[in-house]
Amino acid sequence: MRFVFVIIMLIVQTGASMPNGFQKPTRYDNFAVYKVYVTNPQQRNIINSLLKNTDLYNLWYNGQKEIHIMVNPKELQNFIRIVSREGWLTELLIPNVQALIDAGNKQP
């Protein structure tokens, strides 16, 4: 009986120490990915300052002339306001990241 208890405790500890142990996976419903065409260092600096808030923005690609950035839906209006104010050329690449994940997880 004691052996069974030890095994159960090891399983629980292993699961708790794993990064995503018994947690629900993160979802990305309505997170959007935008391509931002970068034409000067000031634009890159503004984008880098946005990327410091990892709850709202996530870098997907960092090229010389373009940056792909995932935007949290809570921040979308502010992102669009910044893009408009700065006069940046952008392109919506993925309107809903979770829909793309779900489509990739479907079994044939």
UniProtKB/TrEMBL annotation:
Residues 34-103 form the Carboxypeptidase activation peptide domain. InterPro entries: M14A-like_propep, M14A_act_pep. Keywords: Metal-binding, Signal, Zinc. It comes from the Eukaryota. One of its GO terms (molecular function) is metal ion binding. It holds the Pfam family Propep_M14. Residues 1-16 form the signal peptide. The keyword Protease does not apply. The keyword Ribonucleoprotein does not apply. SUPFAM superfamilies: Protease propeptides/inhibitors. This is Uncharacterized protein LOC117565893 isoform X1. It comes from Drosophila albomicans (Fruit fly).
